[in-house]
Amino acid sequence: MTTTRIDLEVNGTPVSVTIGVHQPLLDVLRDVLELTGTKECCTVGECGACTVIMDGRPVNSCLILAAEAQGSSVTTVEGLGRKDLSRVQEAFLEQGAVQCGFCIPGLVVSATCLLEATPQPSAEQVREGLSGHLCRCGGYNRIMAAVLAAGER
Length: 153
Fold this sequence. Notes:
Elements: E1 3-10, E2 13-20, H1 25-32, E3 51-54, E4 57-60, E5 73-75, H2 87-94, H3 104-117, H4 123-129, H5 140-152
Parallel strand pairs: 1-5
Antiparallel strand pairs: 1-2, 3-4, 3-5
């Protein structure tokens, strides 16, 4: 396997890792850096469970080669509430939006990006902002309520 070394920032910490040139960012986060909050599910970018923030934008880490992250800043769900829960995480708990929890990390990451760009989004903007996510438990109403509540804070 051909490898390369990349330098990036993950959750505010500089990281230098040797990776396979065809290795997805998702695998590096989970298997090399042991940040397992980012979930592996469909591996084709349709479910949103692996969403992370890369250079200020939400991306499906299963679709990004780790080598493409060279020099980037990546934030996983672990990086959002480093000392205390973030306002989005608190709202998800308060609104009962966390069911099985599998899709929640990706949803929290995307909701965080949405609220940074649009601090008080409409319901339609929330739907659009979370449109790349699937919740197998069907907790969409509570998820919507949580994001709207976080926007009101």
